[in-house]
Specification:
The complex is a heterodimer of chains A (about 200) and B (about 525).
Chain A lengths: L4 H26 L3 E4 L3 E5 H9 L5 E10 L4 E8 H12 L10 H26 L4 E2 L3 E6 H11 L3 E13 L2 E12 H18 L1
Antiparallel strand pairs in A: 1-7, 2-7, 3-4, 3-5, 3-6, 4-8, 7-8
Helix pairs in contact in A: 1-4, 1-6, 2-5
Chain B lengths: L1 H20 L4 E6 L4 E4 L1 H7 L3 H4 L4 H4 L1 H5 L3 H8 L4 E3 L1 H4 L15 E10 L2 E11 L1 H58 L4 H32 L8 E4 H18 L3 E4 L7 E4 L1 H17 L6 E8 L3 E8 L33 H11 L3 E7 L3 E9 L22 E5 L3 H13 L3 E5 L2 H9 L9 E5 L10 H6 L11 E5 L4 H9 L4 E4 L4 H14 L1
Parallel strand pairs in B: 7-9, 13-14, 13-15, 15-16, 16-17
Antiparallel strand pairs in B: 1-2, 1-5, 3-4, 4-5, 6-8, 9-10, 10-12, 11-12
Helix pairs in contact in B: 8-9, 9-12, 10-11, 11-12, 13-17
Classes of the chains: A alpha+beta (about 200), B alpha/beta (about 525).
Chain lengths: ~200, ~525
């Protein structure tokens, strides 16, 4: 399934609202101006998600994982490669992480960043669909990308598509790119896209 | 069903009790109006807020700090089903608590929804004390930084060593090339007198440079391993200066740099090692000549106060860049270490000078006007009471006119070299190949025509030539027993010197020999005799 240009624009616009909220929270928390951009959105069948992501991040990644449930259900992940994760942690807290590869404090900070971003985006979707979406407690994993994706498929049979959102953090003259991956069932994705289209029409 | 639900109820109550009494985290709950409904024992013990004081009150009323830090948003989000992570790195703490060290307890935590079925009935806040973890992270961080620093230092040392080795091979090859180049030219075809003179001058200068280089290297190695010992004795600094000027003169002349000594020839006495003092002065002079352009001038002077001798070596050369000035006495440091640098040298001369000066209880300083020259000032403790041991340097003429010298060397080339060197200074030389021949010469010589001095090459401790000393000692003056004897060795160490003196020799010279030095030594022995 491919998104039309219109659907893509509408999704970017909608996600930008969520990212804006997340950026405001991060700015407030850190005292630094944090800007979050959504430059690109794409949809991939779950079987090709691995290769789509592999061109974007190295194999060893830090991922913040939250399961969401309700009328729209699925898995949401923020994926950063180790280098980006370390950089982001240092930019946000003024302290470089220990090379462990990531110490507990760094993992905690990244978990919160992922949490803020995922909550903001999924919250925006929830508002749009006018449904209550519930979230699990976020979990940070340090693992290989393929292992993470494999466990997603094993645990959740109905999941078919992955929405990949490029998340560009800009703060203190530096840029760090992470990837938001929202894995949905066909029905959930359908519902989301239809709502996004309706919202776009309502906007114009 | 009934039993099962009763079981769940019991387990639920047990869980609550565990959370309340035993949990190692702070746990409190609020209802859908943000009113605190439970407050576990960990919180009561660790935060100073007792459950009786907070339960039933709005969380923002009981803990106003949470409101002012924007936590209302998180409790609101929990009632919408969202969980908020509170990382220590971003929040520092959830509930302010003064820790044992007077700092607040470091905390992280989370705020999330409490649900019954699909209904959100309130929020739960879980707090963890991460003070210990942060301390160990900080410790680890300090260890990593320390090891990074150590590695950087080691890498810097390796880099300096590599640079040094590169420079060393360059410095060793350059004079060798000159020597080899000219010897090949001379071997290939007959040379005219002018060319021969030129060749010998270049070979001599470069061989001398090589000798100094090796001396400096060996001394640096000795200093590094703590094995450099001074052979301290009363010494006249003026003589060391004049001898060093003699050595550096050919190089200076070749470059059209004038070396001028301004302080007269009266003895400037101190306690020190004459060879090392000469090395100090030579290094300073060589350095000054190196950095002075043709037509320039190097001025040497010695000033004396009641307690100190101050040696000054000034040049009007290019000077030292201000940023390099603090580093000039560091080993292997050069202002311009690049391969294309204009000046040769190992970068050990000045560091060696400083070490040698300090071994003498002295100190060295440098001042420089970048572009206009440098002044090195060395100060030694003066010992004016030694002055009477030394006649003025002016009297210590190297002129050997009228003196008869007996040379003993089993190597024909060495014999020839010694003979020519002494003859150049006016001596009449008889040369023999062994100690026994030397004694035979003495036996066959009338008393009034006995040699004034003997110069013998002594290769090692067991050398037959060494027996010359004791053999002379057993003789009457009429048979040569009083003739002063100079031992020449290839080894320079206090032990060798002691062995020679113990065998009855009067002075020790080390190869390679400078004719002027040898002549001065012979002259001084004959005169004091």
């Amino acid at each position: 399934m491919e998104l039309t240009a219109l659907q893509q624009d509408a999704l970017i616009e909608l996600l930008s609202i969520g990212f804006g909220r997340a950026a405001a929270s991060l700015s407030q928390l850190t005292g630094h101006r944090v800007v979050l951009e959504v430059p690109q959105v794409s949809v991939h069948p779950i079987a090709t998600l691995d290769s789509a992501l592999r061109s974007l991040v190295s194999d060893e990644v830090a991922s913040v994982h939250q399961i969401f449930s309700g009328p729209v259900a699925g898995d949401a992940l923020l994926i950063l490669d180790y280098k980006a994760a370390g950089m982001l942690k240092e930019l946000l807290t003024d302290e470089a992480p220990l090379p462990l590869p990531l110490d507990a404090s760094a993992r905690e900070v990244l978990t919160e960043v992922g949490n803020i971003l995922l909550n903001a985006c999924l919250g925006t979707f929830g508002n749009l669909l006018q449904v209550q979406v519930s979230f699990s407690v976020p979990q940070l994993n340090l693992d290989s990308l393929s292992e993470i994706l494999r466990s997603l498929m094993v645990n959740r049979e109905g999941l078919r598509y992955g929405l990949v959102v490029h998340a560009g953090f800009r703060l203190r003259d530096a840029e760090v790119t992470g990837y938001l991956v929202i894995v949905l069932s066909v029905a959930s994705l359908d519902r989301l896209i239809r709502s996004v289209e309706a919202w776009e029409q309502g906007q114009s | 069903m009934r039993g099962s639900s009763a079981g769940e109820g019991v387990l639920g109550a047990a869980l609550l009790q565990w959370l309340d009494v035993l949990a190692m985290h702070g746990v409190f709950t609020t209802d859908d109006d943000h009113v605190i409904r439970s407050w576990n024992r960990w919180l009561a013990t660790n935060t100073g807020y007792d459950s009786r004081d907070v339960i039933g009150r709005s969380v923002f009323d009981a803990l106003p700090d949470l409101e002012s830090r924007g936590f209302r948003e998180y409790f609101d989000a929990a009632l919408r089903g969202q969980t908020t992570v509170l990382a220590h790195g971003l929040h520092r703490y959830v509930i302010p608590v003064a820790g044992a060290d007077g700092l607040s307890m470091r905390q992280s935590g989370s705020i999330g929804p409490l649900t019954v079925g699909d209904d959100i009935v309130g929020a739960i806040c879980v707090i963890e004390d991460v003070t210990e973890r942060l301390l160990s992270e900080r410790e680890l961080r300090a260890q990593i930084e320390a090891s990074d620093r150590a590695r950087a230092l080691a890498e810097e040392a390796v880099r300096a060593r590599d640079e040094f080795l590169t420079t060393l091979s360059h410095e060793i090859r350059t004079p060798l090339n000159a020597v080899l180049g000219w010897t090949r030219i001379l071997l290939a075809r007959p040379a005219g007198a002018e060319m021969l003179a030129r060749a010998l001058e270049v070979i001599d200068r470069n061989a001398l440079a090589q000798v100094r280089l090796i001396d400096d290297l060996l001394d640096t190695a000795r200093i590094i391993s703590g094995k450099l010992r001074l052979d301290a004795q009363p010494v006249d600094l003026s003589r060391a200066v004049l001898a060093a000027i003699d050595v550096v003169q050919p190089t200076a002349a070749a470059k059209d740099v004038t070396v001028q000594y301004e302080s007269g020839t009266e003895p400037r006495t101190m306690r020190g090692d004459p060879d090392r003092l000469q090395q100090i002065v030579w290094n300073l002079l060589a350095n000054a000549v190196k950095f002075t352009p043709p037509g320039g001038q190097v001025t040497v002077s010695i000033a004396q106060s009641a307690t100190e001798l101050t040696l000054t070596v000034a040049d009007n050369g290019e000077g030292i860049a201000p940023e390099f000035l603090p580093l000039v006495f560091e080993r292997f440091r050069q202002a311009d270490p690049s391969a294309t640098r204009r000046h040769s040298g190992l970068g050990i001369g000045l560091s060696l000078v400083r070490q040698l000066v300090e071994l003498h209880g002295g100190r060295i300083a440098v001042a420089s006007d970048f572009g206009a020259g440098s002044v090195f000032t060395v100060t030694f403790p003066a010992r004016p009471e030694f002055a009477e041991d030394f006649a003025s340097v002016a009297e210590a003429s190297s002129e050997l006119a009228g003196l008869r010298v007996l040379v003993v060397d089993d190597a024909a080339e060495g014999r020839e070299m010694l003979t020519i060197a002494l003859e150049q200074h006016g001596a009449r030389v008889t040369a023999v190949a062994s100690a026994s021949e030397a004694l035979a010469v003495l036996d066959g010589t009338p008393r009034l025509e006995l040699p004034h001095a003997i110069v013998a090459d002594v290769r090692e401790a067991g050398d037959a030539a060494l027996a010359l000393g004791p053999a002379l000692g057993r003789r009457t003056a009429a048979r040569g027993g009083a003739i002063p004897c100079v031992g020449v060795t290839a080894f320079d160490s206090p032990q060798v010197k002691r062995r020679l003196l113990a065998a009855g020799f009067h002075a020790h010279l080390v190869k390679p020999l400078l004719p002027a030095t040898m002549a001065a030594v012979v002259r001084s022995l004959v005169r004091s005799d």
